[in-house]
Design brief:
The structure is a homohexamer. By secondary structure, chain A is of the alpha+beta class. Chain A is 42% helix and 19% strand. Chain A starts with 13 loop residues before the first strand and ends in a 24-residue tail after the last helix.
Chain lengths: 318, 318, 318, 318, 318, 318
């Protein structure tokens, strides 16, 4: 699908290729001419594109977070490359997993390092039933492929390939450490951490032009989908204890912590409590970091974050 | 299990039998002797029992809502029969469905009438997939037996055999009528009404001495259990459309209306909205009625209801 | 007031008439000329109008939901009629009920059918006092005229003539059915349903350019105004029982269900509970329907609804 | 009704008279005999009464806040007079205003001083319409009698005759002062302060054995009843401006400040804001004072107050 | 810094001076030319300025509430003076207190009158410890200078020099009056009123271009900063009683009334209750007044206020 | 103070010594004699005591969590030692730290191990300013003594000596680990963890008969007291950066996470977020553990926890 990456675009090149839109705005130049400025991205970097003709018409047919096909020529402006767009349209085909990886950055440390961490963590599980569960999951290649590629959420500023995996691994490592301090069962905590968001593989889909929610994602949510997914997996594992199945489902069900946040049951055992609090910590810190990367007001303070209802402060290095 | 029903107890009879405890209190008589007064019940009626010896010891070994075994003699006091208890103990065996029916009254109109209503309503479903779903459920006798016998909730004042069925049928009838007024699909509304609380058959269990919650009932709740139950049923039905499966599960998931009340997703289609509001109406009215039967302060006003945070008013007949 | 209806506008006609504004926006054409596009409506249909001269000046002097006087010529553009506006101004005179009917569509089924339903329902009331109350209301023609014409709310997307009546009749029919199932008094439920929003006839007024709130509407709200209205009506009815007056006022007062939603008293009797839940159901379903008619994102999902905090899903027909 | 006041009871007197119960408890003496201790009150003071015979039977037939008829003999115990009760029963007749005054203390400063303050404040109202309104109220003697006698609330620890008047006068004086600082109209603020709780004269009634809520008090509340009362009064005053009627009703309606606290409309004008905040201040301080008089834990701290969710602190005199 | 005040600008004058921006918008003229209209202010008045060249470039470099340096010429347009801007830039230097006074109006009645009121109120404090505390504060000239100059809040529509002082004095006067009615200690109430917002002198700072929050203001808030400030002051006063220090800090800590509004402790003594309610009243009325000065919809109703979630009503004078 | 420990009480010994009351109840024996059963404790264990004479009188003069002086004789009953009480009274003297340690168990692992952990953690702080801060704290022996001895809260079921230290050390260890995963500064996180509850040393005091709240604890709370304490410490450390002081105070201020939970500022930097979530996790898990030790309903489920609004589940060992 992709032929020419952002990193390889040369001055005066004719560029006819696919990109991800990360910003879009309409401005007017010094001589009062209206134009659209679009920030385009693929996994190698970002480049600005400008639309000077048919401004309203062309800019009306795509949005932020869309994958678009662009016809343009690269020119140099104030020492930076810029695409001079002659035509642009939204890609309406649903992309494959491989294709979608061309447009998004990979999560911290890279997919390979994260997969290794995942397999190391699952290999350290001592409980025989839980160990078998992760062997069973390993056999479901398609499931694992989706789990390894998906971002942790849709429509947040920086969505990254492997974001869900990065979050799951990070929660598992911290939660396992906290289990030691709090007397929770480390194997159940580890399994619960890796599975708490598993339903997202059915909630998030590749849509025309990027990531989006599936119908059942909107109707049922990743908590319910995760429990159904586990409920369908378990019959394949001989002798998996009923109480353990219930506890894993309970960890998934309760990981948002309370009803108002989407968990109809509070965490009711030490293992569920650990997963809930560590999940909260990791998700919130990740969200704040991304906000601070995207939207600082000055060198110390971020802009106001709507959802978290706060500005955030970067502690000076000194 | 039962041999002598309340309705058949005669004066001076020796009574050694099982009863349900509906009230328990300790008082002192005119001559300042302490005694325990216990209200005992079976499906035929209620009788007062008094414990005069070993008052603290005997009354400590059972509670309200327990099934107890009583050794006593019937005597007449102020023209009413009363049991003079010599021994009493909690039944620790788990009762069968048949046994448990001996102790609770049947829901309004009787079980048979309610079953007929259920089969009439399911027979009127035109949608072929939904019709097949209820045929499939009909084959699962054990499931249906539980659905027909269980009360609508545990530990409410008057628990009745068939209370869950009564509520489901009542919601289905009103919701179907409302569907006509609101443009919702009547078959989906009917199916959703009958299934919205189906998870209660795994949430509520017969415990030693009465009804109680199962472990998975406490850990997962009847909403999640209902969705899992449906998800296991559907593969048996050829060609059941995915969207319809998602919509039925969504109706179950959203029937409490909003996150704070235990539904992580709001009702998102007309069908789910109808089931939610009619379920609320029927459950609240039923709860208020039972409260007013049990706890009036005078002829017009009930006592304050903790959960509903209100007194209730009986409109004068005139 | 109206002379030429949308349905009768012919190509090249000179159009000088009154219309309701339902959309307004400023755009630029392919050749970068700014223009205002306005969607105009009367009871027969809608037509687009464009302002090409004095764009900012003219479009600043009216808003969505205003009645405007337009001077224009009809031309054909891409096979559709369009008004080419030369002058436009907001109508500042307060319209009469008859005039206002020229601009809004009638509620579902038409005013006549709804009035018939209203009179049929009131004629079926058996309770002699309540029957007399509705006879008394029948004598107050002006009151009834307003009740029959008003929309159910102000500034919602589709306001229709008779919307309040449609909602009241619909609640009455469903609530009466539900009364039978729940043991509530059907006559009180019917009367309460028809009167629960009666205060809107004092809360909503015809303002220059459409519907709006009266001063006392903003200061007191339709619940208080409805109770005052009833309190002034009742002395005209001989022997109306005090308790019945209190119950009707209580139904009006409590129909929003709880303090946070504007009802200082919770519904305290079966009759008030039925009206509250059925009112909620009908209003919410109506609101969702109108949202889905106005704002679908694709063929299955509506856009996000701010107030209801959700998207809504159209169950596929199949 | 009363013949012998607490202040006049002499040692060894036979006492057969009516009292208000302010405390009731069951204890056992040093030699392990059970007895009931009851604290009895009339407007002249309090005395302890003890029941030694038929303890359970007699103490079951009355409650705190009831008016009771007592047969007893006064004896001296540890240098204090005590009533030795032989019979006691709840008074079931509804008391007249005059009778009820025999049992409760008068509000701070005495009824006469408060009435004077009321008439002084109303005489200082400059606005001719508002002045006429209070003249009209003056003519309704029965209404004013109730307004002058009632307590500010029911079932609070110390209910006093004139409590409602004391609160109304106190709010009026502070609010008038605050009006000067905030630019609110002083006459409207004064009138609103005196009328904000006027509905309590229909909400609170003399019940058998003391004060209680009327049916319409429970169904409609004092806010709605106050607005209805005003709405019935105003036609008697020629030329009373509509806007002024709406503003007074709005002050009554909004004086609880927000929906959650029972006011469906927020205060929307300076006058309503002043009445709301000063009413809150006076009511809360009064509530805290009464709590601190009744329930200190030590010399500095009160016990925890359920409703206000706090302990309160008595600043040391030094 | 300032040389030419708004009040002194003459027709055709060349104006090169500093102003405060109070409004900024982009419009297009009758002949469709885009321009920026900016409302400029200093302590003597306001004047409109228009930017016709480099509209986007120039208007992008400053915002509402900024201090800007303007190069322009005054011309007359429709009988009003207007500045024709050729250059404009944001002032980046941090202004001194004296400089900042050039741009904002003074609070009601003028700074001098407010200072007099402050010193009169403090001189009337009888409690010797509290009197000494305000003498100590009087010695800290820099502290008092900031307290006298600051506005009551940042980024509200009309910020005035002395707004914090005006609010503090107004609360003190009303609270002292209310103390007499409620039995609170008048000296503690007075001191608490004057100190409740004292932390704002560390929370609000002069920023480049106007007022803003300090880092510690954002991290700790004025409540915590006020307590720290008092805690540092008190050691300078011999024999200041511990309990009095705790009570003053408690008044500061609790003046927002409850946790959700930023006070981790509820007001726990009469003195703290008085300060809380009177502070609320004064702040809300002030906020409503400023909103009504800035944003009326018609002669009676203000526009909707986001924060207070209401419109406000101006009672007609008649 | 203590002479004879529970562990050393021998049969038939005369016991006149001090104990902590952990349970108190009144029962009646088989032959219907009333007695009080009291569970007494010191750091070596617990023993039951029974009061047979002057039951009401003696048991009225002390409560759970009091230190009492007991006169009794040890006797054997059903193979267990029991104290037969002849006299008992509450100790009214305020205990010293050393004395109070005689009655409570030590926190997990013992005080010495926890102190070692504390000094190891502080010695690993690399930031020179923070390192100096903890050296300064080390010099304040009295402060550190209180910090090492206090329980983590008052009036929770099991209060242990060193509970505050145990919680602080546990948070520090987990938070430091989490800092590595989330990019927060590990030294600030460590310091913030150890200091977040430091204000408890001024909030909790030894009262007559055990632990309690100080006046300033109730008026200001441990968050404000902790900030004041730090603010008084910092001037002793040369060159401590202002921003670091603000950040530490912010961590203390925000550690409850949001206003409703007592933190007027949300955590605004990564370091504060880590401390907040880990503090929550540790405190909740500790609370649940203590609840499960004290109040299991059966072998799997705890009783309902009022504050946490849930039952808790002990995952079977299998």
């Amino acid at each position: 699908m992709k032929r020419l990456y952002v990193a390889d675009i040369a001055k005066d090149a004719e560029v006819k290729d696919f990109f991800l839109v990360v910003k879009k705005g309409i401005y007017s130049s010094k001589n009062n001419t209206r134009y659209a400025s679009v920030s385009l991205k693929d996994k190698t970097g970002a480049i600005e594109a400008r639309i000077w003709d048919r401004v309203d018409e062309l800019s009306a047919c795509f949005d932020r977070n869309d994958i678009v096909y662009v016809e343009s020529r690269a020119r140099s402006y104030q020492d930076r490359l810029q695409l001079n767009v002659t035509d642009i349209r939204k890609e309406t085909r649903v992309l494959s997993a491989r294709e979608i990886c061309e447009f998004y950055p990979q999560a911290g440390g890279g997919l390979e390092r994260l997969k290794e961490a995942y397999f190391r963590i699952t290999s350290e599980i001592g409980n025989v039933h839980l160990a078998r569960l992760f062997e069973e999951i390993k056999k479901r290649e398609e499931m694992l492929d989706r789990f390894f590629i998906l971002p942790a959420s849709v429509a947040v500023h920086h969505m990254s390939i492997g974001g869900l995996l990065e979050h799951s691994v990070s929660v598992a490592e911290m939660a396992k450490y906290a289990a030691a301090f709090t007397g929770a069962d480390p194997d159940i905590v580890t399994a619960g951490s890796l599975l708490h968001d598993i339903g997202k593989i059915d909630e998030i889909v590749f849509k025309s032009g990027g990531f989006g929610f599936s119908d059942q994602g909107r109707l049922l949510g990743h908590i319910t989908l995760g429990i159904m997914l586990l409920d369908r997996l378990l019959p394949a594992i001989d002798g998996f204890p009923d109480f353990l199945a219930d506890v894993l489902k309970h960890i998934i069900l309760s990981h948002h912590g309370q009803a108002e946040w989407g968990s109809p049951k509070n965490p009711m055992c030490a293992e569920a409590l650990v997963v809930h609090y560590i999940d909260n910590l990791d998700a919130r810190i990740m969200g704040v970091k991304e906000h601070m990367e995207a939207a600082m007001e000055d060198e110390k303070w971020s802009q106001f974050h709507r959802l978290y209802e706060s500005r955030f402060y970067k502690v000076p290095e000194r």
